[in-house]
Amino acid sequence: MEEISKLVIFYLLAAAIVVSSILAVTSHRIFRAAVYLLIVLLCTAGLYLLLNYHFLAVVQLSVYAGGILILFIFAILLTSAKGDRTEPHDRRRVVAGIISAVAGLGITTWATLKHQFLYGNNPTVLGEHETNMRLVGQTMMGSGKYEYLLSFETLSILLLVCAIGGILIARKR
Amino acid sequence: MEYTVYIILIPMLMFLFLGLGSKWLAPRVAGWFGTLGMGVAAALAYATAWNYFSAGVAADGAYPTVTAWSVEWLRFTDRLHIDMGVLLDPISVMMLVVITTVSLMVHVYSFGYMKGERGFQRYYAFLSLFSFSMLGLVVATNIFQMYIFWELVGASSYLLIGFYYTRPAAIAASKKAFIVTRFADLGFLIGILILSFYTGTFDFGQLTADNASLAVTSLAGGSFLGLSAATWAMALLFMGAAGKSAMFPLHIWLPDAMEGPTPVSALIHAATMVVAGVYLVARMFPLYYFAAPDVLTLITYVGAFTALFAALIAITQTDIKRVLAFSTISQIAYMMVALGVSGMGDHAGEGYTASMFHLFTHAFFKALLFLGAGSVIHAVHSNEMEAMGGLRRHMPVTHWTFLIACLAISGIPPFSGFFSKDAILSAAFGRDKVVFAVLLLVAGLTAFYMFRLYYRIFWSEDRAYEKKPHDAPATMLVPLVFLALLSVTTGWLPFSQLVSSDGIPYALGINGWIAAGGILVSLAGIAVATRLYRRANDLPARLAAKWAGFWRAASHRFYIDQAWLFVTKKIIFRCISTPVAWFDRHAIDGGIDALGTGTQRCSEAIKGAQNGQVQAYTTFFMWGVLIIVVCVFIF
Amino acid sequence: MISMEHYLIVSSIMFFVGIYGFIARKNLLGVLISIELILNSVEINFSVFNRYLYPDHMEGLFFSLFGIAISAAETAVAIAIIINVYRLANNIDVRHIDQMKY
After folding, report:
1. Taking CB atoms and an 8 Å cutoff, what residues of chain C touch A100?
2. Of C43, C36, C59, C33, whose CA–CA distance to C7 is shortest?
3. Between residues 36 and 95 of chain C, which touch chain A (CB distance below 8 Å)?
4. Closest to B615 (Cβ–Cβ): which among C23, C99, C102?
5. Which chain B residue shows the shortest CA-CA distance from C34?
6. Which residue, of A63, B171, B214, B237, has the greatest Cβ tally within 10 A?
7. Is A78 within 8 Å of C83 when comparing Cβ atoms?
8. Which of residues 591-630 of B touch A (CB under 8 A)?
9. Residue B364: CB atoms within 10 Å
10. pLDDT reading at A82 higher than 70
11. Element (DSSP H or E) covering residue B223
12. What average pLDDT score do residues B391-411 get?
């Protein structure tokens, strides 16, 4: 029963993701596109929950939905004139994009389906165990093998640099 | 005797100091530094000579060969390595003395002669460079070190000939000297390579040891075009020597080199650098004698021909420095002949001793002649005999010293030239009567043209001088007097006690008959010159008209320069250089150009792809990735 | 049970929709949104592979985490640039930003 409910939830999320992402890249109004992106990101967080990655789902929500989307909206408000919805598509480019995307998708799907992944049909793989938060924290802050303190610190510096760089680039001269 | 290395290092440091500091040094200060450095080097050289010769012979009765200082520079194999060192043996010690003495005299003399010239500091820097290179050449411990300094000498000679770089003639002369000697040095280098290829060493000591047995045995196998490897190697070495020492037909650069300042001519083109070739042959003499006696015969005939040839030209020249230049060629050829007719050991090696003796005495009296000529030129501001005459009353010191030098070069006793020339004649007489006859004739011609020069400068009649000529300042007279003293006295040195072919001292007497013959011929030459030129008369002109053909040919230097020009311009330039230039311009340049224009056309055609639209780039990228992925799956 | 391929196909669709958007959109912000889609699909892949193939490890999880952080940084800089472009050109149409051609 639970399996079926999971499956239903997955299909709902998948449908929402596919539809919203297509709308996000085709919508003529950039603000709407941002909202569709938000839906995609939320549904992705749902997928993470299905995978039992709760921490990842929370991060996805807070960083993407809470941070990046707000940035987007600010940028849209700053750069769009009122009623700015005219975005006539360049037909040649649309065709090129569609061909590229369909061809790529075809090849990828074919490769995915053709390949036999070796996790077997072992139901214990997706056992109900939730990822231990303590373990996540220790791994992130540890300095041993398979631990990520250095990457974490590097990333923090990267973020700082990006913040400063963003201010520098965007400031009025 | 490790201090001998400073004899070489001091001029080098002086060159660096004067060359780098010439902007900040007053001319006089630069001159003082250069002269002082040379003075110290000369003092050290005298000390070396004194210590070396007073130490006497070694146990085997010969003067020892001392490596006073040596450092390995490049190592190829255990035996084949290039060292930088100081080799002391009788001839190198003698050369040290000659070079430092003449160089010091020229340094002092140049104070007066070059006064007020632009580039006075540069001039002294170049003099130091030359002295350094020449000293390094004579003390070389191995043939490669000698070659390096040989080239340095050529380079500094180039710089000094072209000192007046605003004068086109000086530039042409410096280029000519450099190119001709470089051409000869090509032979030298190939000779070195052949020699070291077979013997596996550059070292003079190993090459000449035990009657050059190493070279004789190792070079025995090879032959090329019917001549043995030894003959080739030694003949090519002689080619280098002939280039530096201006032997026919490579003599053409030396007369033109007179475009340089006169003291430079005295130092480089009379006393030191031009005898480097003689020195090289002397240094390698055991190899020539034991491994390639044919080449010694070649040297003899080339030398004898050059001596006669240059003397004939010297008779007809009117530029006093050119007369001296051809006289130099003739006298160096004398030394070459002496080496050519020499044997090994004791009295058989008389020619070797005589050659070095003549080198020694000639350096002083020829430097004196040049410096005297410089003094005359300084006074009358011309090189041409036409502008001179009757100067004996105006310039007494120059006159007397010049006369001494003329007597010395003519071989009149008791002046130094007599002794060395007599030794050469005697050596030639013992070997080859024809060569002896030629040398005797050349001795007469030498006396004739030297006294022609002398009379036309100092006797004849007064010209209408703009300013009354007067003797040069003291800085120029002191070297003249000093060198005159040397020209008188050096002949009395017991030279055979110091320098001999095998290093063992022996007694070399004067052969009475030959000496008498030589003196008679010289006196005859002087007498003819006196009759013709002492007072102005029309006899020389009538004689010239009578032998007009000879006169014209000789005054055009027998058209050797024209022959070389024909060979280079007409044959080499037209038949080799022009096709090569065409190939270079059209095939190589054209190929590169085609590559360039091809690339340009290509990029012109495809530059539209780079339209600045990142999205277009992404599309291309995407397709590339997809194609690669498909390829990976298919193959 | 939901098989792994389900997730992978969803993420592939998201990825190639992003690619399409990147190529076809004209608005710079639209292009940026497409980039976010692409990044997001990649992060899904990382965590899916981690969960299915190596359930005892956490590399994929951390890759996703760091990917999210990097996309945040990238967005910050990109938006700063876009605002600057807007100031200079008064619009944010990609077709106008082609000074670097040829």
Report:
1. 16, 19-20, 23
2. C43
3. 36-37, 40, 43-44, 47-48, 51-53, 55, 57-59, 61-62, 64-66, 68-77, 79-84, 86-87, 92, 95
4. C23
5. B615
6. B237
7. yes
8. 615, 619, 622-623, 625-626, 629-630
9. 28
10. no
11. strand B223-224
12. 88
Angle at which helices C4-24 and B614-634 cross, to 10°: 140
Nearest CA to B237 out of B277, B180, B293, B297 is that of B277
Are residues B349 and B502 in contact, defined by beta-carbon separation less than 8 angstroms?
Answer: yes
Q: Find out whether B395 and B470 touch, Cβ atoms under 8 Å.
A: yes
Q: For B470-486, what is each residue's pLDDT tens digit?
A: 778 888 888 899 999 98
- Dist. CA C21–CA C5, nearest whole Å: 24
Rg of chain C (C-alpha set): 17
C61 contacts in A (CB within 8 Å)? 53, 55-56, 131, 136
Contact A104 B622 (CB under 8 A): yes
Q: What is the rounded distance in angstroms from the CA atom of residue B243 to the CA atom of residue B153?
A: 13
Q: Which two tokens stand for residue B470?
A: 């007067």
For residue B594, what are the contacts with CB-CB under 8 A and spacing of at least 6?
none
Q: How far is A165 from chain C (nearest CA, A)?
A: 7
Cis preceding linkage at B263, omega within 30: no
Confidence at residue B130, expressed as pLDDT on a 0 to 100 scale: 92
* Cross-chain residue pair B613–C95, CB shorter than 8 Å: yes
Nearest CA to C15 among C49, C48, C41, C46?
A: C41
For residue B71, the cross-strand partners are B84
Chain B residues closer than 8 Å to C100 by CB: 612
Q: Cβ of B619 and A111 within 8 Å?
A: no
Of C29, B199, B527, nearest to A71 by C-alpha is C29
Q: Does C97 touch chain B (CB under 8 A)?
A: yes
Handedness of CA B332, B336, B337, B341 (dihedral sign): positive
In 3D space, the residue among B85, B91, B90 whose CA is nearest the CA of residue B55 turns out to be B90
Query: Kindly report the CA angle at B157 between B152 and B161, in degrees rounded to 5?
Result: 155
State pLDDT tens for residues B502-560: 778 887 777 788 888 889 999 999 998 888 888 877 777 788 888 888 878 877 777 88
Is ipTM beyond 0.85?
yes
Chain segment B26-72, per-residue pLDDT in tens: 888 888 888 999 999 999 999 999 988 888 787 777 888 888 888 88
Does residue B16 surpass a pLDDT of 70?
Answer: yes
Between the CA atoms of B96, B159, B174 and B446, what dihedral angle is there, to the nearest 10 degrees? Answer: -30
Exposure string for C63-79, b = 16+ CB within 10 A, e = fewer: bbbbbbbebbbbbbbbb
Contacts of B607 in chain C (CB under 8 A): 102
Residue in A23, A24, A25, A30 with CA at minimum distance from that of residue A80? A30
Question: What would the pLDDT profile of B288-327 be if each residue is shown by its tens digit?
Answer: 888 888 888 999 999 999 999 899 888 888 888 889 999 9
Apex B263 CA angle, B258 and B268, nearest 5: 65
Q: Which residues pair with B69 in a beta bridge?
A: B86
Q: Who contacts C14 (Cβ-Cβ below 8 Å, separation ≥6)?
A: A17, A18, A21, A40, C37, C38, C40, C41, C44
Q: Report whether B456 contacts B533 (CB < 8 A).
A: yes
- State how far the alpha carbon of B107 is from the alpha carbons of B7, B39, B158, B479, B487, in Å: 16, 9, 18, 9, 19
- Which residue blocks in A27-148 are alpha helix, DSSP H? 30-50, 54-59, 69-79, 91-114, 133-141
Q: How far apart are CA B53 and CA B50, in angstroms?
A: 6
| pTM of structure | 0.68
Which two structure tokens, joined as six digits, stand for B357? 């003796």
- Tokens for A105, please give them: 């998708």
CA atoms within 13 A on the CB side of C58: 22
Confidence of residue A20 (pLDDT cuts 50, 70, 90): very high
